[in-house]
């Protein structure tokens, strides 16, 4: 799903913006991946328990 991939990429970028000056590139990648995975599963969980999220993020 292209929209879910976009949401995951955006969440990964947002999750690394705060500590960007203090972490190494490897840890920045890990933080971004974790942020992307969290948003994908949270969108699926919101859909399952029928919470309305108009943005889908």
Give a written overview of the molecule.
This protein is an all-alpha fold. The chain has one domain. The protein is 70% helix and 0% strand. The chain contains two helices and no strands. It is elongated and about 40 Å long. The chain starts with a helix and ends in a 9-residue tail after the last helix. The relative contact order is 0.19.
Strand content: under 5%
Helix content range: over 70%
Helix and strand succession? HH
* Rg over alpha carbons: 13 Å
Number of domains in the coordinates?
1
- Described by the principal axes of the CA atoms, the overall outline is elongated
Helix count equals: 2
- Low-confidence blocks of residues: none
Q: Number of DSSP strands?
A: 0
Structural class: mainly alpha
Q: Span between N and C termini?
A: 13 Å
Q: Note the main sheet.
A: none
In short:
The chain is mainly alpha-helical and 57 residues long.
Topology of helices and strands:
Layout: H1 2-17, H2 25-48
Helix pairs in contact: 1-2
């Amino acid at each position: 799903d292209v929209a879910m991939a976009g949401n995951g990429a955006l969440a990964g970028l947002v999750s690394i913006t705060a500590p960007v000056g203090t972490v190494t590139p490897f840890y920045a990648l890990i933080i971004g991946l974790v942020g992307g995975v969290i948003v994908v599963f949270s969108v699926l969980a919101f859909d399952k328990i029928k919470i309305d999220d108009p943005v889908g993020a």
